[in-house]
Amino acid sequence: MSTDNEHCNSLINETSPYLLQHAHNPVEWYPWGRQALDKARRENKPILLSVGYSACHWCHVMAHESFADPDTAALMNRLFVNIKVDREERPDIDKIYQTAHSLLTQRPGGWPLTVFLTPDDQVPFFAGTYFPDEPRHGMPSFQDLMQRVHDFLGENEADIRKQNETLITALQTMDSGTAASALNALPLDAARQQLEQAFDERHGGFGSAPKFPHPTNIERLLRHWATAQTSAGLRDQRALHMVVYTLERMARGGMFDQLAGGFCRYSVDDQWMIPHFEKMLYDNGALLALYAEAFAATGNPLFRRICEQTADWVRHEMQSLKGGYYSSLDADSEGEEGRYYVWTPAEVRALLREDDYAIFARRYGLDREANFEGRWHLHVYRTLAQLAEEFSLDVTEIEQADQRARKHLLEARRQRIAPGRDDKILTAWNGLMIRGMAIAARHLDEPEWAQSAERALDFIHNRLWQDGRLLATCKDERAHLNAYLDDYVYLIDGILELLQVRFRAQDLSFAIALAEVVLAHFQDPQGGFFFTSNDHEALIQRPKSAHDDAMPSGNGIAAKVLGRLGNLLGETRYLAAAEQTLKAIWPGIQGMPHGHASLLVALEESLYPYQTIIIRGAAGTMIEWQTMATRPYAPRPLTLTIPDNIATLPGQLAERSPRQETVAYCCNGHTCSAPLTDSTAFHTALLNNDMKDTA
User: What is the pTM of this model?
Assistant: First the structure.
């Protein structure tokens, strides 16, 4: 990036740290908006659209090689109107042009995304990702490419117009299909079989390198184990094995920060050894929830430790003083990917006493060959039990030595120049982390984590909920951009999980208000939900994606939370919208069940009676009952513990009236038990619910 701070382009007034990184480029960048689009149309100049994000390594590489170069910038300024987009602030634009890239190239996209658009309609006619400053690896130089693309448009305008028409038709019809008249459970079993076929028996996870965590798929297998039975009437232990083995290998691998906690984006190899070093909030929100649920299901102490380290990292490094969670940490520091995280044996030896070093070196592979560009990135090769046997020590002694060593290395690492932090606060990603913190707080009995989630929720409610609508992002006290479907439904999902830890009436009211906006402004009359609202900026496509990618499908989470709210409140509009979503997307679910894991949660909860448990009583007397209800992993119940001093409740919750003693109302679908005032009877009802959960 340019160091010429005298020059400023039109990005200088933006809030996005990624856009501000390019504000002093010699490129005359514009943010996406009327100024740039009108300029392109008025001057009849094609648009060069560049999409990236702050933590993206190859975005930094292309910025350094090309966007900071005066000669390259001069060519860009002469031939194009140049628009820079932060994909985290404008996921609508990113979704559209990533899809267009795939249609044009028949290859998957990525970042940086480089797309050339015709000036009058913003339709892409050429697309790619990273382009080097010099020809290499079969790719032309970026300068050569730009000249060729510009010339090609001038010489083949008629053909490009025809191509554009075909592309627009493809974009506008790709999410259409014939809705189902009825739903069935076949995709639930099909997804489990598809995941087993993709399972890596040796290293865990699914598929080959690069290997992503895919938390929605792992959660699908865990739910399958908890709720389905084999032909012999037993739980599917093979499904549980795939979950546990994958989570153990990820936890011991280099994708997990062994010193500070938190997960990187993905592993570049199939052994979970070397990550792409960027750390994203959304990954960690989903993985925190998953490890907490896996701990509840298995009692595995490794999973507890991963939750503790990840939650502590988020609270101490990724949460603002005002409550909101920050977005990400860069992969790079001092111009090198991973520099902040890697070590040499000499560096480690200088920090530790000799006996601790001997244990640490064996545990993390410092006695092996370097695994990352001549240095060592920490990867667990030996368990504490294996080391205890090897060194003839008690496991507790090995664990204490490991803790001492990690503490010393972490303190030393904090003296290094840290990767940049993208400190904008995104509503959707905060929703994912609120959910993760709430689930982990419930299963591990950590009230401080629930308090962290509560602070984030209050920040979103106070700063990004304005005039009855959500805003998507906030940076330096400036909240802006019309929120997307994911913002609303991820936040509802987080609220519903937080309500199960501690109940606040205003949070339930907020969730209902959010749901009403979703129905009013995002719903497709044909079923399902668009990614953008009906009063959003008009773009070349209104996306309505249903499959999961790095984050769960907005349609999947919408169907889930509307189903849960509908059952909780007795609100038939919510239940109908959830069912219509499943029916509208049914062809996609049938065609690729494991690619729609978030929708399968909603499907399962639609097909089988969903359980809600309401406990009323004095605040001090409900603890035993709440603890009883927070039993080992049971994914389908939603349990609210509501103090008697909350008198006004919405929907059918108003019927769950307080009494002179603690009382519980247990419901399966629309069928509820008589009020239970005896703890033994309540415990029996929970056991019966557990039995029905596997029926």
Answer: 0.95
